[in-house]
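User: Structure please.
Assistant: Input sequence and predicted structure:
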Amino acid sequence: MSDSLLMVGKIVNTHGIRGELKILPHTDFPEVRFAPKSKLKIVNPDSGVMTEVTIATSRPVKQMYVVRFDGYDNINQVEKYKGCEMKVNKEESVELPDNEYYFYEIIGCRVVSDEGEELGIIEEILRPGANDVWVVKMPSRKQLLLPVIDDVVLDVDVKSKLVKVHLLEGLL
């Protein structure tokens, strides 16, 4: 699997019988990614087989997007894509403002406290509401939940995959 691709969603199920699919977005820009005429790649995570598709229609439904691809108008044509990932070329990534990052840039970063203590590696990003929460896997096998707020996250260096944080009381 080429790391020149970014995951933007996962196909979780079919929707109706007219070839629509439910996609769980893994992107901050679902309205851009799943807009009609957008070109995406369907990647089978098991076989690595890649299929290029163009979105014909899409609409947000709860936490999902229901999309139909050009040339696919029947459930039998799309059923095989359940569980596949939706990807785009990294070059097509949307330019972010300063101090905003893509998931792929944050996941895998080492986390160090402002006192120089190694805390662990970011393995997941949760989006419960007001702010994101970075899940840090610590050497003790425990998880540290870091709220992504200015008081906690002091510095993010995506090039060296290093995040410096200030541990507020009660976080550890």
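The mean pLDDT is 90.
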